Each structure stands twice: as structure tokens, then as C-alpha cells.
């Protein structure tokens, strides 16, 4: 009989389910339960990356319904009610048979359903009203348990070693962006990273991250982030360009994610050739980013307001003379300082306008001040932090300046 590589502890699953129910009772009290479609959300709540649906009644036991892989789901998940289904018509009877019938008002993760899927669901489940539970799920996942934090801490530790100790030994000016990206990815895999980064936002994709030499850091982008990157090809705008060489008088800016057992840490590190003078404007830009990081790290405490931290970061950038190029240059500037992180790169909360809910102990966030210098490149720093009762703990190391490569 095969065994699973890991099985979500029952207590951990119950903690997550009850947190979702508590948040739902407060945010969407009309709903009688949550119907989850997104595979990452199903994984978060059951421990298996099943293709199907998860029904979580406000009162009663959850029911996991899978289109394929019933045996795998039973091996990996502590959920006791697991069944196969073929059509949305089946789910009413399945849930009733398990003693957890669907309710007249159901909250669904609308970001997980396509338009056609939602129309099909509404057509197959009659006399039912549907609300959204995406806000419930994002807030539930934002606060990590000790079980999750241990994974994040391991991830961050390996991430730091790869970026600060191993990569500098294997890269040098004269290499192309793609050669550097391939070197970094190989080292990440050697250090235990899965190499895959998940995104929450609809349509967003990522593949390990970005490597940009010189003014590539200001290249126009589609993704919601400040660092520019030509990437492999217009169809694959990730990693780095095979035709762009890193020269010794340029910054090499890397924004790479590391993933361990599904959990991700994010970090930006700028490399510079040892012994080569750095232009004053780049030095000042990096110093400004370091100042933003220092003040932000000191402010990351339970009760702090993300929007206020974002406002202060903008004020610092203005004081340092970089207001117009903070968090990107030109029309590609982004209006945030950082983001929650965990099973996905882009989790709740966001350090941006409108995010007024206070930080909580157990949250993990990535803070990434960057400054684009037209014609020269992008400077910056990023670390992933754990919010503790006493303040912020960097999971990805303490280096905030550039990393010199000799």
C-alpha cells in the first residue's frame, strides 16, 4: 500500500476550517457554508491538491469531492468524507449522503471559478444563492500556524544560503541573464526548492522569478511588480534574456522566489562586481531603499496598518530625491511596498492604499523597496518577514546592501 509523502495533521486541518468558519460568520453571516473550487485553496484546507470541490458547512463535517484521484486524496488528506463526482448535479446528493447537505445560501471562491463553471454550477444546483468567500480565504491564509511557520523558516534559511553564499561563487560579469538565471535555478533546486511559484491573482504567472542586468531592470512589464525583465521570450517573460550580458559596471538585480513544500519566500538581491566603482546615483538609490527597509522592518508589528507603512515609505523616497522612480520608473511604477506571502507569492495583506486592517502575529510578508534609475538599472532590497509578538523577524537573512561578486 503506498504512503503519502506528508499528511496534514488533523489538528492543523481543523484549525484552518474553524478559522474560515469564524471569519465567514463575521464577514458573510448569510452563508450556510463555503464551496471551494481553487486547487491551492483545497490543498490549504485538506492537504491534497485535488481537482474538484470542497464543501465546508458552517455546521457539520466537510466533504471533499474529486473528479479524479480518489485514492490519492484519501492517502494525503485527513478529511474523512471524500467521494468522486462527475457532474455538478451529483454534489447535492453526495453532500446529503455524508450528512452535510448544501444550504440555500452558499459562499464560493469566485476567483477559482471561471464564468462557464459558475454558470454550470448555478444551473445544476437549483434554488441556491451564491456569495463570495474570497476575502474569508485570503484572511484565513494570511495568519500562519506554527506548523506553517516552520516551513517558511526553513524555506527562508535555504533561500538566504543560495543567494548569499552559493550564487556569488558561480556567477561573474560576462555571463548572460539567462546563464545567471539557469545557475540560480540549479542552485535553488540543489538546496531543496521546488522551483515553482504559485500566484493568487487571476492570470498572473511566475517561474522562479526574474534576473535583470543593467537597464533591463527598467524594461516594461505586464506583471504587477516593479522590476523589469525582458525574460526568455514575449511568450515567457520570466528568468532572463539569453542575449543580454551582465557587465561589471552594471547592477545585476535578481527577484527570485524559493519554495519548500508549497510555501514560498521572496527576496530581491542586487549583485555588483567587486572593486568596480558604483555610480553615485545608484549608490544613493540603494541607500534610500535600505533606509525604507530599515524603517519598515521596525514598524512591522501586530497592530501596524499596512497603508500607513506604505505612506511612510513614499515619504522617505521623496526625502531622498527618488519620489518619481520609487517602486519602478515611468508608467510601470507600482503602488505598493510589499505583500503577504505563503502558499502563493501574492497573499493578503498588501502594503498599499486602502489596506487598513492591522497586521497580526503569525503573518508573513515580503517587503520590497526598489528604485529604478533610467538608463542604468534598478536598485533595491527585499526580504520575507514573520510578524511576531515582539516585531518582525527576517526569514531570508539580514543583508540589505548589494552583494559584491569578486
The helix-strand sequence is HEHEEHEHEHEHHHEEEHHEEEEEEEE
* Global outline: elongated
Q: How much is the radius of gyration in Å?
A: 23 Å
> What helical percentage do the residues reach?
25-40%
Low-confidence stretches: none
Give the percentage of residues in beta strands.
15-25%
**Residue-averaged pLDDT, rounded?**
96
Number of helices: 10
Distance between the termini: 53 Å
DSSP strand tally: 17
Structural class: alpha+beta
Strand order of the largest sheet: 4-3-2-1-5-6
Outline the biggest β-sheet: 6 strands, mixed
Describe this structure in words.
The protein is 33% helix and 21% strand. By secondary structure, it is of the alpha+beta class. The strands form four sheets. Strands 4-3-2-1-5-6 form a six-stranded mixed beta sheet, sandwiched between helices. The radius of gyration is 23 Å and the shape is elongated.
List the defining traits of the structure above:
406 residues, 17 strands, 6-stranded mixed β-sheet, alpha+beta, 5-stranded antiparallel β-sheet, 10 helices
Compile the SSE list and pairings.
Blueprint: H1 10-27, E1 33-36, H2 39-46, E2 52-57, E3 63-66, H3 70-76, E4 82-84, H4 90-97, E5 105-108, H5 115-124, E6 129-132, H6 134-142, H7 146-170, H8 177-190, E7 209-213, E8 252-260, E9 263-273, H9 280-299, H10 306-319, E10 336-340, E11 347-352, E12 364-367, E13 370-373, E14 377-380, E15 383-388, E16 391-394, E17 403-405
Parallel strand pairs: 1-5, 3-4, 5-6, 9-17
Antiparallel strand pairs: 1-2, 2-3, 7-8, 8-9, 10-11, 10-12, 12-15, 13-14, 15-16
Amino acid at each position: 500500500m503506498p504512503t503519502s509523502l506528508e499528511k496534514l495533521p488533523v489538528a492543523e486541518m481543523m484549525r484552518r476550517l474553524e478559522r474560515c468558519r469564524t471569519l465567514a460568520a463575521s464577514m458573510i453571516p448569510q452563508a450556510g457554508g463555503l464551496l471551494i473550487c481553487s486547487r491551492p485553496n483545497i490543498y490549504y484546507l485538506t492537504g491534497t491538491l485535488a481537482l474538484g470541490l470542497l464543501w465546508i458547512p458552517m455546521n457539520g463535517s466537510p466533504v471533499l469531492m474529486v473528479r479524479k484521484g480518489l485514492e490519492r486524496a484519501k492517502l494525503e488528506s485527513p478529511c474523512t468524507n471524500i467521494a468522486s463526482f462527475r457532474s455538478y448535479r451529483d454534489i447535492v446528493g453526495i453532500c446529503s449522503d455524508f450528512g452535510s447537505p448544501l444550504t440555500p445560501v452558499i459562499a464560493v471562491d469566485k476567483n477559482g471559478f471561471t464564468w462557464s463553471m459558475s454558470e454550470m454550477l448555478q444551473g445544476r444546483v437549483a434554488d441556491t444563492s451564491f456569495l463570495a468567500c474570497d476575502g474569508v480565504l485570503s484572511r484565513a491564509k494570511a495568519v500562519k500556524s506554527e506548523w506553517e511557520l516552520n516551513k517558511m523558516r526553513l524555506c527562508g534559511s535555504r533561500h538566504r544560503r543560495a543567494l548569499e553564499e552559493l550564487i556569488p561563487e558561480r556567477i561573474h560579469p560576462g555571463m548572460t541573464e539567462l546563464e545567471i538565471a539557469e545557475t540560480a535555478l540549479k542552485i535553488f533546486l540543489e538546496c531543496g526548492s521546488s522551483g515553482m511559484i504559485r500566484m493568487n491573482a487571476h492570470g498572473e504567472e511566475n517561474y522562479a522569478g526574474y534576473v535583470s542586468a543593467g537597464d533591463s531592470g527598467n524594461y516594461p512589464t505586464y506583471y504587477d511588480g516593479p522590476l523589469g525583465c525582458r525574460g526568455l521570450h514575449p511568450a515567457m517573460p520570466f528568468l532572463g534574456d539569453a542575449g543580454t550580458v551582465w557587465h561589471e559596471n552594471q547592477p545585476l538585480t535578481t527577484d527570485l522566489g524559493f519554495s519548500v513544500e508549497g510555501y514560498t519566500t521572496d527576496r530581491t538581491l542586487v549583485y555588483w562586481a567587486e572593486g568596480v566603482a558604483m555610480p553615485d546615483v545608484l549608490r544613493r538609490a540603494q541607500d534610500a531603499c535600505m533606509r525604507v527597509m530599515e524603517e519598515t522592518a521596525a514598524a512591522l508589528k501586530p497592530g501596524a496598518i499596512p497603508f500607513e507603512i506604505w505612506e511612510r515609505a513614499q515619504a522617505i523616497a521623496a526625502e531622498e530625491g527618488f519620489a518619481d522612480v520609487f517602486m519602478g520608473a515611468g508608467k510601470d511604477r507600482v503602488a505598493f511596498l510589499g505583500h503577504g506571502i505563503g502558499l502563493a507569492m501574492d497573499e493578503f495583506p498588501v502594503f498599499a492604499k486602502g489596506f487598513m486592517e492591522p497586521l497580526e502575529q503569525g503573518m508573513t510578508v515580503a517587503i520590497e523597496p526598489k528604485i529604478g534609475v533610467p538608463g542604468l538599472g534598478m536598485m533595491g532590497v527585499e526580504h520575507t518577514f514573520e510578524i511576531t509578538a515582539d516585531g518582525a523577524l527576517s526569514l531570508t537573512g539580514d543583508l540589505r546592501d548589494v552583494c559584491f561578486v569578486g
